[in-house]
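I hope you will forgive my troubling you with a question about protein structure. The full record is reproduced below for your convenience:

——
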Amino acid sequence: GLNASVSTEVEFGVCTVTCGIGIREVLLTSGCPTTEAKCIVRVEECRGPVDCGWGIPISEGLACVKMPCIYIPPENRFKYVWKMLIPNKTAHILPNDSAIMEACRDTHSVTFQCETQENGNIIASVKYTVYPTTEMQTKKSRRIEKGQSRITKTDAILVFCLVTGIIVTVGVTFAMIFIILHWAVVKSIWESKSGQDNQDKKLANRSSPCNME
């Protein structure tokens, strides 16, 4: 719907990813068909650095985990190569060629890597560490202990605040009751104190140098 004879300027939006492959908007900054300052012309692919570092599994249980490769739809457009990384040895290529792989925990930690390829070129790479069941149970126990510790500290603070509030409230209540029941005595004490203050002021005025003169 745009007039091809109109001079146009294009601006690119932010890529949806910082590594691998993502998408971004292509914006028109002049020549839009409406009064808008910018309008979307199209959405295109964008690329970032190939190495995406360490990923987060999409599902993680005590027995198995599910790990995704990096891709954009359609999923079958790319080729996925899963590898098991072994320290000081050549990586072992796994038969799994899908975008998501499920791996069950072993007796030791295992590192996996997925390479997303297109036309023989690697466009994204991500690694995962699958920890053994015993370590996951230990981590879970530590998280539970930390959570209970935080709850205990919070409960202690709440109890302290509650007790302090009750003590202050009771003290103020008793003070008000005492004043109400002994209002006459309190009033007489207050009046006598006010009278004494007035007498002291008068004596002070009489004994000042100006009055002496």
Remarks:
- The first helix runs from residue 133 to 181.
- The first strand starts at residue 10 and ends at 12.
